[in-house]
Amino acid sequence: MMADAAPGPTERASLGELAVFFLRLGVTAFGGPAAHISMMESMLVRERRWLSREKFLDLLGAANLLPGPTSTELAIYIGYQKAGFAGLLLGGGCFILPAALLTLALAWAYVRLGSLPQAAGVLYGIKPVIIVVIAEALWHLGGTALKTWLLALVGLVATAAALLGANPLAILLAAGAAMVTMRLAQRKRAGPEMFFGCSLFAAAGASTTVGLLPIFLAFAKTGAVVFGSGYVLLAFLRADLVDRFHWLSEAQLLDAVAVGQFTPGPVFTTATFIGYLLAGVPGAIAATLGIFAPAFALVAISGPIIPRLRRSPAAGAFLDGVNAAALGLIAAVGWQLGRAALVDATTVVIAMVSALLLLRFRVSSAWLVLGGAIAGLVTSAVG
Prior knowledge:
Elements: H1 15-28, H2 33-47, H3 53-65, H4 70-113, H5 120-145, H6 149-163, H7 168-187, H8 212-225, H9 230-244, H10 250-262, H11 270-302, H12 306-311, H13 313-341, H14 345-359, H15 365-382
Helix pairs in contact: 1-4, 2-4, 2-5, 3-4, 3-13, 4-11, 5-13, 5-14, 5-15, 6-7, 6-13, 7-13, 8-11, 9-10, 10-11, 14-15
């Protein structure tokens, strides 16, 4: 905790610094939202000291309450905090761009080869590294977010609820409401009034002709209403694109989601792959812009409000509860990923070496992820 005292986090960052950071993160951020968030905490809070842990947690809590891709919204929030509206566009855009370009290349290969390039070896080596990165971030963030026994209890209950299959948004709202109730009970009086809203885009329908505007609107609707993981995204896309519009087959949709899971950066770049299948490069651009546009709009609307919420006792209690529950959700994801990642002696060794390099030698999580990918490819080739 003493290391956070001096020097303090820097107030601003240049647009060039933001662009370089988020482009680099977009290239190396494998493993889904929990891993992305853990890497941001490691690089921005502890390595670059661009944000305090308290500010990072507040932005994470707000991102969790919005529909759309949580880690992308966190990147957009951070860009806004460090460089205003231009940073908002640059932070999110640079985080999305590498994954979108890689997904577009894979879509091109898929159309011509009829199948996806083999990715099992890369994922085999990356997954154990991601577990270590998530665990270390939870340890550091937990010291800030779980600052009372009550918040620690909220985090544990949130983890248990997530593992039992409860709705993530319901967990976050319940945790926030519980902390507000406790805060008001402790003060024996009502705190300042607060307002929490979620502005959703209108759910515009699309015609059966797969033009660029229908593609954009279909994916904008999805980006505006989806909460949760890539598997929740799969359910929404299946309902619209397979069952309703008949734009894709089941096999094509599953391949598209697999690409989103395999590539670094946001899982929502699944939209890029599908857009290419529907209408080539213009379709890929329309789908990508559509699914991420709500995230940029919602962050732009809510970004200026977050500092005011923290100054309100009742709203601050709500954020404390949401932050504790958000860590619980990440812990649940980490546990589930760990069961799938640590499957044999080799993956356990990769995880142990990664932990040593991260904790003892402070090797950046980005380099660890790349090392895990190489180890996975080598192991796959030898095997």
